[in-house]
Amino acid sequence: MSGIHEFIGNEIKSNDVVLFMKGTPQFPQCGFSGQVVQILDYIGVDYKSVNVLADSEIRQGIKEYSNWPTIPQLYVKGEFVGGCDIVREMFQAGELQQHLQENGIAVRAAS
């Protein structure tokens, strides 16, 4: 299983923003993943997505890696931010945008 944790760690370390999700940003396979994609697209953040449905080892591995039971999972600069509910609450409060900017990640200004 360590190979999977290594893969996950590498994805998280080599990309500023990583979303582990069910499906792809173009075709989310669950509503929660879709909501996080909509939020990230709305604030105009570049991110890497990893489809956990493509590989059951990744799907299980990410839950162990973060010690978080659900997908999607959002990482910023190697740090686990949270799942759908946390991301949505942070976004609504303006905290997600602030967190990204504090980490040097460009976000689109609210119109």
UniProtKB/TrEMBL annotation:
Keywords: 2Fe-2S, Iron, Iron-sulfur, Metal-binding, Redox-active center. GO terms for molecular function: 2 iron, 2 sulfur cluster binding; disulfide oxidoreductase activity; metal ion binding. [2Fe-2S] cluster binds at C30. The keyword Metal-binding applies. PROSITE patterns: GLUTAREDOXIN_2. Residues 17-81 form the Glutaredoxin domain. CDD domains: GRX_PICOT_like. The keyword Metal-binding applies. Coiled coil: none annotated. Gene3D superfamilies: Glutaredoxin (3.40.30.10). It holds the Pfam family Glutaredoxin. NCBIfam families: Grx4 family monothiol glutaredoxin. PANTHER family: GLUTAREDOXIN FAMILY MEMBER (PTHR10293), MONOTHIOL GLUTAREDOXIN-S14, CHLOROPLASTIC (PTHR10293:SF72). Belongs to the glutaredoxin family. Monothiol subfamily. This is Glutaredoxin.
